[in-house]
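Morning!

This is the sequence you dropped in the shared folder:
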Amino acid sequence: MRSILVFMLSAASMLGASDPWAKVRDLKTGTELRIYKKGAAKPVLATLDEANEENLIVVIRNEEVAIDRGDIDRLDYRGRPTPGTVTRQTQSTVTGPEGTMPRPQGNAGGSPVSTSTSTNYSFGSKGDFQTIYRRPPAKK
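The structure's back. Tokens below.
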């Protein structure tokens, strides 16, 4: 009995491994997609709603669209941004008259000196797109 169960589990895993669309069905709702359709010059950027055996249901510019699996040449995905470390970048600039740097002794000549500081923060990152599906070659 145990050998039959092991055989069934290994057969099921091999069947899933041979189906390139299985990974697409496992994607989570809200995943960002780049869809390369047959004959299209540019990919379509969309957000995944659902993937089933026949269609990929996505949201493109607030409109839900079903794309037939047979029309897709390649599918790339990018996961949700991971909350990572906050990166802080501060830049200070000191300028003298007419945009020149002031003398090291300070402001001995009485010319005006200005200082400007800017700080930028970045929170996490989206990451790169990764290919998850390529249409298999046509059977002859």
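Headline: The longest strand covers residues 82-95.

More detail when I'm at my desk.
O.
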